[in-house]
Design goal:
Blueprint: E1 4-10, H1 16-36, H2 44-48, E2 49-55, H3 67-75, H4 90-94, E3 98-101, H5 104-113, E4 121-123, H6 124-131, H7 146-164, H8 183-204
Parallel strand pairs: 1-2, 1-3, 3-4
Helix pairs in contact: 1-3, 1-8, 3-8, 6-8
Length: 206
């Protein structure tokens, strides 16, 4: 039950999935500010949507976000505090209403770990691409309560899954791994993440 929970997954949980975790929280906070016409109290977004992340490997467990990833989050207005990398566990998947992976390989990893999560596990780029095909007017009404956003989020995931039936992940849906590369690469990957998480926040909180 509420809050609507989104789990982001990449390989080491220090670059792509932490950026997605924090940029989705930022997008939700910005939508709430626009809807209320003013500032949003700290923690309000977290009461409506829980965005967190994990990695398929545990090599970086306990580490902070990779510095160039953190720079991207900060430069866009997000928060990088209190982050610690962790290895993906089955219970993380079980508790998630939506799982967004950086690549198709990681999507397969999640589904192999928890086959019953297949209908709510997507590659991030795939989800963003299919999101545009969903009729948002057919979803439950949007409101700023945890129960309302949860109902709308769960219905949205089901609608995107219906839109996906029979379709394959496209090569361009994967996020490049920017680890060890320059700020320009991290900026491009962060842009691609925002291209998916901002529309998600907009549908959840129109």
């Amino acid at each position: 039950m509420p809050p609507f929970t989104v789990l982001h997954v990449c390989m080491g949980n220090i670059c792509r999935s932490p950026m997605a975790e924090r940029l989705l929280t930022l997008a939700v906070r910005e939508r709430l500010a626009r809807r209320s016409g003013g500032a949003v109290e700290p923690g309000t977004a977290d009461q409506l949507l829980h965005s967190h992340s994990a990695g398929t490997g545990g090599w970086h467990a306990g580490e902070e976000m990779n510095p160039p990833a953190a720079r991207q989050v900060r430069s866009r207005g997000g928060d990088v505090e209190n982050f610690g990398a962790r290895k993906l566990r089955s219970e993380h998947i079980d508790a998630a209403d939506l799982v967004l992976t950086a690549t198709a390989d990681q999507q397969e990893y999640v589904v192999a770990l928890r086959p019953d999560a297949a209908g709510r596990t997507f590659v991030l780029g795939e989800f963003g691409r299919l999101l545009g095909t969903v009729d948002a007017a057919a979803l439950p009404p949007a409101d700023d309560t945890p129960e309302g956003l949860y109902a709308r989020g769960v219905a949205l995931v089901a609608a995107v899954q219906e839109a996906r039936r029979g379709a394959s992940v496209l090569p361009g849906d994967d996020l490049d791994d920017p680890w060890g590369r320059g700020d320009q690469c991290f900026s491009r990957v962060a842009d691609e993440i925002e291209e998916a998480v901002r529309p998600l926040a907009a549908v959840l909180l129109p």
